């Protein structure tokens, strides 16, 4: 697997199938990440944090030819993680997790976002859609048959999360900054976010993951084509998705 700043690389894995020992990934973590481990109440959550952060460090270290333990992260005002060291790396990333599933996105664009959401029963869908979706998105959800509502709501939420994460906006201000009702059944589209930002969205990113919605969003330069490479990590090997 080769990550290039001239393209977008999306990686999916299940922590049960990574094939890299937990101790090996744990050894890559920083002191502050080790402190965070102790804040988790359940052992499963501790393991998930170790695996996704350790793997993130390993991937970035291999890409930038840097010792993974020396990598330092910072966060924006709304908590979006960025690479602070090595400085001016030109590499941007985003990650999302749902249970044991992890999704990463890497590119040469700061406005890159990815989201993964387990499709599940959501209580009070109509109320949530009315409060957090546009009028068109709300109408789409409430007019669907009951068996399709959960899937539609989670898919829309996943798309909007990816767009928000790419934009760098807060969730509070970003939920109503776009309307994707018209693109609900599309797999790749451009969408206006706020007044001046146009983002390209792909959904699903990983279409063979059963029971999960996935979405990727990125701001491309004018007339720049989307070059997307997808991999799944299984037993220590990156396999073309």
TrEMBL record:
Any single GO BP term: lysine biosynthetic process via aminoadipic acid
MF terms (GO), sorted A to Z: holo-[acyl-carrier-protein] synthase activity; magnesium ion binding
Domain of life according to the entry: Bacteria
Gene Ontology CC entries for this record: cytosol
Domain named 4'-phosphopantetheinyl transferase N-terminal: residues: 27-105
Limits of the 4'-phosphopantetheinyl transferase domain: 113-171
Protein name per the record: 4'-phosphopantetheinyl transferase
Similarity comment text for this entry: Belongs to the P-Pant transferase superfamily. Gsp/Sfp/HetI/AcpT family.
PANTHER family according to UniProt: L-AMINOADIPATE-SEMIALDEHYDE DEHYDROGENASE-PHOSPHOPANTETHEINYL TRANSFERASE, PHOSPHOPANTETHEINE TRANSFERASE
Keywords: Transferase
């Amino acid at each position: 697997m080769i990550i290039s700043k001239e393209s977008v690389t999306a990686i999916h894995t299940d922590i049960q199938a990574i094939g890299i020992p937990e101790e090996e990934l744990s050894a890559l973590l920083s002191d502050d990440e080790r402190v965070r481990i102790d804040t988790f109440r359940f052992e499963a959550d501790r393991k998930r944090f170790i695996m996704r952060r350790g793997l993130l460090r390993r991937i970035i270290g291999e890409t930038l030819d840097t010792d993974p333990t020396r990598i330092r992260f910072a966060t924006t005002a709304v908590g979006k993680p960025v690479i602070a060291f090595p400085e001016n790396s030109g590499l941007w990333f985003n990650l999302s997790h749902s249970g044991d599933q992890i999704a990463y996105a890497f590119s040469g664009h700061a406005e890159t976002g990815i989201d993964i959401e387990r499709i599940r029963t959501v209580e009070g869908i109509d109320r949530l859609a009315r409060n957090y979706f546009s009028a068109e998105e709300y109408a789409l959800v409430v007019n669907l048959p009951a068996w399709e509502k959960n899937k539609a709501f989670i898919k829309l939420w996943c798309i909007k999360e990816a767009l928000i994460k790419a934009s760098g906006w807060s969730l509070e201000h970003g939920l109503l900054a776009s309307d994707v009702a018209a693109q609900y059944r599309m797999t790749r589209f451009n969408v206006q976010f706020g007044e001046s930002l146009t983002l390209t969205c792909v959904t699903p990113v990983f279409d063979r993951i059963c029971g999960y919605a996935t979405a990727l969003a990125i701001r491309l330069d004018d007339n720049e084509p989307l070059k997307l490479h997808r991999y799944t990590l299984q037993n220590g090997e990156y396999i073309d998705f």
